[in-house]
Amino acid sequence: MTPDPSPAPTDTRLRTQDEIAARVKALESMLIEKGIMTTEAIDRLAEIYENEVGPQLGAKVVARAWTDPEFKQRLLADASAACADMGIGGLQGEEMVVVENTDTVHNAIVCTLCSCYPWPVLGLPPNWYKAPAYRSRIVREPRKVLAEDFGFEIPDSVEIRLWDSSSELRYWVLPKRPEGTEDMGAFELAALVTRDSMIGVGPAASPTA
Amino acid sequence: MNGVFDLGGTDGLGPVVTDENEPVFRAEWEKAAFAMFSNCFRAGFFGIDSFRHSIEKMDPAEYLLSNYYEHWMHVIEDFGAQKGVIDPAELEERTRFFLENPDAPMPDRTDPDLLAFVDAVVRSGAPANRPIDKVAKFAVGDRVTVLADSPYGHTRRARYVRGRTGEITGAHGGAIYPDSAGNGGPEAPEHLYTVRFTAEELWGPEVAEPNNVTYVDLWEPYLSLAS
To answer: Which helix (H) or strand (E) holds A196?
Structure first.
């Protein structure tokens, strides 16, 4: 490999929202005319990730794992197969790996090189997950980031495991079941499973909160 | 390539800024930019690895400061021009037009096959694991050291693990090799492993936070048995 050519210095210029919107429309119109794109495909994709595929699916999987030990074993052994049994899976989750939080281990996910994230169970990532601050710091000072940026204290006695999604494997977290939920069923429990708890930057919600 | 996108361990980038009420798409243009990825993937613009490398080649200051989906737009412009689909001069001209006429309608076109593709690809994905004839050189439990040199072009060998030693905790068989596919080469599958590094190994015993480890997925050519 030889070095990639550097962009011309004049290319460095941040655009306003209006300028970005106009540029996207310009590109979109050209791609439509070339037979590559349609506005209905845009609408369909937006519909899928706004209303169909999101953290509510991961929450269903977690709640089932909390209430069904046999399913939990399958989920930890082969997350994609276990999720497929619930009709959950697909793009950016072809090979999913679920890592379990316990009293002695806390897990969190990151993509330091880009923005890899398990779409079929969590939907599209929040902007902070894709932004430089989280990607740079969570591997270097995880306790500090969790405590100071997310208000989530992890005692030094608990091992923190970071999972940097550098390949097409997609990691996500099985959070600890909150205390005081012994009598709750999977449907009720799913409402306590937050997106952040499956990234590993927060706990599952408490039933009393 | 050594670039700013390779962020693991970089200091000085400020606090994590979260927004509890953030919508999935913050503007209409984000929906269109998001859709361009799968639509142009179908049209043969790029694979996932060359898509990533195109983003890596953005102006670094712009990369750090711009909206996330502008990175995707950059790729569409980059490959659109390479494939002869997007003429840069025409793009500038149309951009000026839409800036002055923000409500001008899009060309009208329907494509049932594209709609069917969208639903199918969301449901089934595009797996990157591949059959491989080569015998794996390493196994779970092996201690391995990551090649320390700095390659040009696309790689997933992040700088913060180069030269570091860890233990293989997972062996995943063959997978598309980004250092080939991301640089315009064939898929050239290689064995993929998960390697666990202690914080002390990554950041130094004086600096590392207590009791933490990082797992990174690494391809066989990145690794050698630790001496």
So the answer is: helix A195-199
Q: Say yes or no to pLDDT of B95 above 90.
A: yes
Q: Which residue has the tokens 């270097």?
A: A140
Nearest to A120 by CA among A152, A80, A166, A149: A80
- Among candidates A93, A68, A111, A108, which has minimal Cα distance to A201? A108
Q: Two tokens at A167?
A: 């390949």
* Same-domain pairing of B115 and B150: no
pLDDT greater than 70 at residue A209: no
pLDDT digits (tens, 9 = 90+) for B108-161: 999 999 999 999 999 999 999 999 999 999 999 999 999 999 999 999 999 999
A132 vs chain B: nearest CA distance in angstroms? Answer: 7
Q: Which residue matches tokens 């659109």?
A: B80
Instruction: Identify whether residues B108 and B156 lie together within a single domain.
Output: no
Calculate the dihedral angle through the C-alpha atoms of A64, A161, B155, B170, rounding to the nearest 10 degrees: -70
Same domain for B70 and B110? yes
Whether residues B151 and B210 share a domain: the answer is yes
Could you tell me if B32 and B120 lie in one domain? Answer: yes
CATH code of the domain in which B218 resides: 2.30.30.50
Q: Which of A83, A111, A165, A197 is catalytic?
A: A111
pTM equals 0.96
* Contact (CB<8Å) B13/A137: yes
In a domain, B5, yes or no: no
d(CA A60, CA A198): 12
- Classify residue B219: in a domain, yes or no: yes
Q: Is B214 part of a structural domain of the chain?
A: yes
ipTM score of complex: 0.97
Please give the residue range of the domain that contains residue B90.
Answer: 28-124
Query: Could you say which of B80, B106, B183 has the minimum Cβ distance to residue A39?
Result: B106
* Alpha-carbon distances, residue B153 vs A201, B149, B179 (angstroms): 33, 13, 8
In a domain, B160, yes or no: yes
